[in-house]
Write a structure and sequence with these properties.
It is a single chain. About 0% of the residues lie in helices and about 40% in strands. A hairpin with a 6-residue loop joins β4 and β5 (about 45-50). By secondary structure, it is mainly beta.
Length: about 130
């Protein structure tokens, strides 16, 4: 079983930046593709970004493309989300999650669905004031 712990959330003004971290307990972190999702009050959970296990391919929601950057440090078992040019509509609880090991090819859209992830962190609150 993998335990994920997010950190780095907080209150920031519009236009500011935050860096989220997701620390994984498992030594098999490097074998899993990973993703970030978010959920705002009263809204459905939505995909934010994903990264392949090697870190070589990344995927982003259109709403964050060009502002957010997902990365990972497999040696440190840690996933990151650098968030720049934050907007009030980015306010949400942010979650990291793991993808079960994939056999075969999947397209980038595979990562957009939370149903394709198995382990989730408890979330970290990001609040962007206008």
């Amino acid at each position: 079983q993998v335990q994920l712990v997010e950190s780095g959330g907080g209150l920031v003004q519009a236009g500011g930046s935050l860096r989220l971290s997701c620390a994984a307990s498992s030594g098999t972190f490097s074998g899993h593709d990973m993703g970030w999702f978010r959920q705002a009050p009263g809204k459905e959970r939505e995909f934010v970004a994903a990264i392949r296990r090697s870190g070589g391919r990344t995927y982003y929601a259109d709403s964050v493309k060009g502002r957010f950057t997902i990365s990972r440090d497999n040696a440190a078992n840690t996933l990151y989300l650098q968030m720049n040019s934050l907007k009030p509509e980015d306010t949400a609880v942010y979650y990291c999650a793991t993808v079960p090991q994939i056999i075969g090819y999947v397209s980038g859209s595979y990562y957009y669905s939370g149903n394709h992830y198995d382990y989730w962190g408890q979330g970290t609150q990001v609040t962007v004031s206008s």
